[in-house]
From TrEMBL:
SUPFAM superfamilies: HAD-like (SSF56784). GO terms for molecular function: beta-phosphoglucomutase activity; hydrolase activity; metal ion binding. It is an enzyme of class 5 (isomerase). The keyword Magnesium applies. Keywords: Carbohydrate metabolism, Hydrolase, Isomerase, Magnesium, Metal-binding, Phosphoprotein. Its cofactor is Mg(2+). This is Beta-phosphoglucomutase. Pfam families: Hydrolase. The keyword Iron does not apply. InterPro entries: B-phosphoglucomutase_hydrolase, Beta-PGM-like, HAD-like_sf, HAD-SF_hydro_IA, HAD_sf, PGP-like_dom2. Its EC number is 5.4.2.6. It catalyses: beta-D-glucose 1-phosphate = beta-D-glucose 6-phosphate. Transmembrane segments: none annotated.
Length: 225
């Protein structure tokens, strides 16, 4: 079975929220509740433009800067941690659902012997992967905890994806990136990755393409043939 990627690709790097699991919806809900409790209206476009795919503190800074606000670092962390507690509560209440088409693609990649990495800004990745029964597909994980501990720049910088490729023992030019966030697609492009797949979960196919995606799909199984 073809994976729909160039022959030079020897490893696959997947974002988690919005690519493998539907938890991006839960993150969006938590961000909205957090910011609206501060009296700051928060729209779908705000999520896509300012926080999607970014480490949580960067998301706080980015959104509040768009409102002309520059909070102290302690306040940034308080807001970010509050959002994290809220999303964990929502996960506990609603559970984790992997996208069936993404699981099909992971199964095909595993059957093809392709190394698989997950690269996410989330500090809750291990919990999400375990709850979604996805751990068996993951050979390397670069999450928010690794990004912080290794002093990596978060997306849209390519650092986390470069680290994922290193952990899979391949060069960026031989790795494919799968992303639903504009920040993640930009990271794949700027990191010189061999193939960037945009996953359109928010009616932003054109933006993903313009941002550097080589191909844009609604579901990952569209790549299988």
């Amino acid at each position: 079975m073809s994976l729909g990627i160039p022959e030079k690709i020897t490893a696959l790097l997947f974002d988690l929220d919005g690519v493998l699991t539907s938890t991006a919806v839960l993150h969006r809900q938590a961000w909205r509740q957090t910011f609206e409790a501060m009296g700051q209206p928060f729209s779908e476009q705000d999520y896509l433009a300012y926080v999607d795919g970014k480490p949580r503190y960067d998301g706080v800074r980015s959104f509040l800067a768009s409102r002309g606000l520059t909070p102290l670092e302690d306040e940034v962390r308080r807001i970010g941690d509050q959002k994290n507690e809220l999303v964990n509560s929502i996960i506990d209440e609603q559970g984790i659902t992997p996208y069936p088409a993404s699981v099909d693609y992971l199964k095909a990649a595993r059957a093809a012997g392709m190394p698989i990495g997950v690269v996410t800004s989330s500090a809750n990745a291990m919990r999400v992967l375990r709850a979604g029964n996805l751990l068996d597909y993951v050979d390397a994980l670069v999450d928010g905890n690794v990004i912080t501990a290794s002093n990596l720049r978060g997306k849209p910088a390519p650092d986390s994806f470069v680290e994922g490729a290193r952990r899979l023992r391949t060069a960026p030019g031989n790795a494919a990136v799968f992303e639903d966030a504009l920040a993640g697609v930009q990271a794949g492009r700027d990191g010189g990755f061999g193939f960037v797949v945009g996953v359109d979960r928010g009616n932003q196919a054109e933006a993903l393409k313009a941002g550097g995606a080589d191909v844009v799909v609604d579901e990952l199984d569209e790549l299988l043939s």
